[in-house]
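Field: sequence (string)
Field: structure_tokens (string)

Example rows 1 and 2, in order.
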Amino acid sequence: MMAWSDILTFTMVASLLVMSPGPNGVLIAKTVPTSGRAAGFANVAGFVAAFYLHGAMAILGISLILVQSATAFAVVKYLGAAYLIWIGVKALVAAFRGVAASGNIAPAERQRTLRKAFVEGFITNALNPKVSMFYLAAFPQFVTVGETSAAASFMLVFIHSMINGVWFGAMVLLFSTLTAVVQKGAFQRWLKGVTGVVFIGFGAKLASFKPNV
């Protein structure tokens, strides 16, 4: 049985991680104004699902193998970095081209299906550098191999995923409430520019990440 003090400490650390700026929040800000609230919640569902991938890798020791195998870690790291940078470049290109020369932009549900939004959320969180670093470095400090049960370990993953779901679910509701503002063409250009810079920055950060082992 895991001590309550450890659970509370983990909850606090996980909450700070979730609330810190990152690609997940940027994806929500980009999705909701153009594809609607449902697509935003599909993003969130993808985020939550990706936590179980991170958690399973950490609990099964795959993360440790990736850290200890320079080649395997490099392949995963650079593929993830390339994906994040690709998203960033696409956003910057869209920003420079401009959107909706005048007036508001119309919702574009057909451009992002719920399935596509879910996949975007899953991949973005699966490759989120700050989440990867958390499960490589911080998560192992809360579990002890051979002592902490798989159920207790996944309970921590569940707590982390629920914190994420509540936080970004609230963000979806906020952006859907402010739809009239965030659908403005000027705001969309600014948002796409910020999205591009943030994703390229996180991609570069992931590419340069070297775990301490």
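Row 2 begins here:
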Amino acid sequence: MAANKTVTKKVTTELPYNEDAERVVLGCAMLSKDYCLDILTSLEEDDFFFGKHKFIFRAISALANRNVDVDVLTVAEELDNLKELENIGGAKYLAECTNTFVAASTLTFYIRIVQDNSVLRKMLTTIRGIDTEYRTQEIENINDFILDSENRFKESISKRHISSFVTAQEIAPIIEESLEKLQDADNDSDVIGVSTGYEKLNQITQGFKPGELIIVAARPAVGKTALCLNFAHKIATHSKKAVAIFSLEMSKEQLFNRLVAMDSCVEAKKINSGRLGSATERVKVLNSIKTLANTKIYIDDTPSIKLNDIINKSTKLQAHEPDLSLIIVDYLGLVQVANKNGRSPDSRQEEVRQISLALKALARDLKVPVIAVSQLSRAVEKRDSQRPVMSDLRDSGNIEQDADIVILLYREDYYADKKTGSAANKKGGQLTDSEKFELAKAQKEKELGAQIPGNASYTEVIVAKNRAGQTGVCRLFFHKDYVRFDAPSREWEEAINAIAEDNN
């Protein structure tokens, strides 16, 4: 019987590389213009392990950027100008690199070898750096260290996920199959993805689609958080899907009480105080609590939560709830960002840019729509018309740029008292026709709203940007007492339209 043998694997600290692959790639770049373009768009200088190969790639890249033909002679001249020709072994070494010319498919194989070794080196270097940091430095917060390490690791292998071009011929069957599924599915009208719960808003947006970043913005107390909760409530109760809510301003108890109010149509202040007026209200509230308890609404009320926590918690939740259909971050202005050194970005604009980009990436990675609540700047209140536009978004134009959908809220009654006071104080009491109309309209809306329960307020949900479709306005009632949004009745719409007709 043969004795058992112990196989000892050689331990090495050397980073991986493939010198032959690097040399073949560089040689092909100097022999073919088409190959050169493939290489320059697939690799970077840091992907090469050897310093001499980095210099050669740098010279090739510089020539290509100047639209100079790339060959052994021009590369040699460029390296000579850079004072690096002798360091790489002279023109003789460049000629050696061109000794092997491979087919296009084989070149792709060699490029992949260089890429894979580059990613592996970065990954190992990152792991070793994390290990060294853990062993030699004082770790104040283990959770922060873990999250930062995880993100550094992801960044080190991110290039591994870079996709290449896909032909139209390859894409066509995917789209055809998707269309067949949509036609066979029992969807609400033209809704793609998840329904907003409001027919008019669905007609404009086609619902909230996987991978979309949606911004809901308004001035304080207009109803942006309430509208997002209504989206969550309808998705969780009607579609029976999972929803994640990151609440940075309100506690989980406050948020749940709001959900109970909108579900039961009992005043939120009564629920908050526990002073329910009748047995009927108590039954409604208890039934709503039971209903909500059976939904898949997940609430995280960590104040000033870090961006990394939102990303990691959302990813873990989706692993637990594959039908996660919406993520809400309320609100963007309170999310914290920390760089690798643990410090915040130098400016608020840079911080918001990082947050919006990260939330967009999160939506795409998880294939789930992400709603970020944002505030509008005070500039909107200084104009004659307070109806918001996208330029009113606070802190950064990046929000507008990164968002797939931007929803702005406008309530006439929010500004009505200010307008009334301003008009009353106007010298000589002289009002323009426009001011007279706005005052008459506000008064009429107030009268009509008084007939509707829940302290109703007529609200314009303005879809100011829609990357995948049209823009427009969805008009809803905001029952402030119930924290609930509902579509207006046909009678209400006719009464409001009559005001405009009378003005004309």
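free_text_note (row 2): Residues 104-136 form the longest helix (33 residues).
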